[in-house]
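Notes continue from the previous slide.

Worked example: a multi-chain complex. Inputs as given:
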Amino acid sequence: MKLHLGGSLAWYDAKKRSNLQIKLEKQISLNALLQKFSIPRAEVAIISINGDMFEGDDVLVSDGDTILLYPPIGGGSI
Amino acid sequence: MGYGSTGKLLYIDLTSGSIRQETLPDDLYRLYPGGKALAAYLLLKYITPGVQPLSPENVLVLANGLMTGAPLSTATRFTAAARSPLTGAYGESEAGGFWGPELKMAGFEAIVIFGQAQSPVYINIHDDQVEIRDAAHLWGRDPEYVQETVRQELGDKLVRVLQIGVAGENRVLYAAISHEMRHFNGRTGMGAVMGSKNLKAIAVRGTERYLNKACDPKTLAELGKTLAGQVKNHPQSWDMQVKGTPGLTSGLNAAGILPTRNFRLGSFDDVANIVWDTYEKDLLKGRSSCHACAIRCKREVSINARYEVGNTYGGPEYESVAGFSSNCAIGDLSAMAKANELCNRYGLDTISTSSTIAFAMECFERGFIGLKDTGGIDLKFGNADAMLQMIDLIAHRSGFGDLLADGTRRASQVIGQGSEFFAMNVKGEEMAMHDPRGKVGVGLGYAVSETGADHLVSYHDTMIVNAESVPFKGAMPLGITEAMPARELSSRKAAAYATLESWSSLGKVIGFCYFGPAPRSMIQADQVVTAVQAATGWDVSIQELLQIGERAINLARIFNIREGLTRKDDSLPERLFSPLENGALNGIGISKTEFEQTLTDLYLIKGWDPASAIPTREHLRQLEIEWAADLLPA
């Protein structure tokens, strides 16, 4: 899985990474994935899964997915 | 004056050559304590309604914020204001960097410039010594030469040189003012006003220290250290330091609101070529800062690809990335960086320049204009060479560039054929690269802003969409209590907008950058209060600070009403009421009915008559500026 932590979300990752390559053995909920990287759900404003915007609370994601996450976009920068 | 400011203003009449100084009394300064508030007050006082913006009768004000130059991160901003040649309305643009703090160290809060010199001049300020010097040898020269020559003439390498480029000399209506080649008062054509006065530059050297004027320098210095230490511990300020504004591009694309092909689309096919990861890999060479700011959000760049770009003029911000890339459909980072370099060299606002070229590209593709209009330039979307040629022509007012140098509103009036629909401006000022179809409060801001389509007039809707988020919690002390969706138009959205608009305005009054205070970044509201209290000794509260911001907005509004603007000028480009044609928000536009209703709600909340959008006398009295009501038409 490709996981992109846009803008300030990379700050929450212990290594401050914006782009992560993850191996998932089985499906996992998005919120559980966020927990693994200590990213507060409240800070995630934009979720793009394989090019489509996701606007619900939670969803199952799989190993082949490309997931882009962004914080609130607030003018001038994220 | 007491603490925190000299209250000293410098008046220069370039026609007569007279120079005088005046000190504002304390009570007046507390009402208009710098920046936007002081500038609006002075413009109302000294500009006769109806003066032509590029005539000697226009007045140019350069006003420091109350805190500008303090040893606090982001307290760097100063305002340039005059009647705008681009809009005919209240014109204003803020810049950070070093010139404002230097003027503060020289002991001045503001410079008020009248008249027009007979031939090019520059002003030299060294503490309280002020002179007007010949600048004939600097006219037409590039910023680097001008800065170096002025420093040599004055024998001081530490002089800060504020200047215009050839675009200002040629009175391009959206010409900028710059200093240090990388800090810009970009918006509303203040560079053209300076050019019309034959004023090439203002050199400043000051030797005072801010803390020597502060009421409680110890608290101020401690706060400065605290803020500097906070940068890396706050996600938003960390983001600004590491990525800066160009970090925005991919998120907006994913959200479906990256301006593309003159705002017809919200998603760009070649976005991978312009996102932060590519910028960092191919363009970034370093990071730099404004005066005393630990965030360091400025980018230093160079590239040697299809176009070669050096680092003389600093790195492109997000606005330039989107403006010269996706909005002109050019997926080439070196072309965008070249366009940014040219604009900075010539002294052009990158937002208005890129938006005007995108407008012309759409007119070209729709057949409203042809090769014979453009002088043979194939001005279709995606043509980087054509875009760069147009920047040259605009700056020099040559050929087709002469029309585009007047901005999208006037150009569309000349081109006709329904091209007004594609002219993305409000009050004549081109829209920033934020599409309100994804965050409609930004659209409220574009519409009601006295200066036109400015994205920094308030904080964006996305700051308050989640009650558990860092930015929302930062907004709570301001009185924001309810989270709401970014695309919601409602009376509660109008109320939240009004509060955040006053807070943003306050930043422009006291000189804090938009990237400093919460909800946008790390400086919490109570720390802003502490800073003002420590500087001045005034017992201010958040409420008084919000009121100072609101007062400044009302003064600018009065200026516009005096110039004949009405509620109908508080509108959006028609295209925004039409749906986006791709991306995550494909098919979504703004509801005009809901927008107009929310605008009415907003006027009522702001204490303005909803039919005329004029502040009521009662409201002006509450803001302690009832005198301004007497300036209104009967």
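Summary box: Chain A has a mean pLDDT of 90. Chain A has one domain: 2-70.
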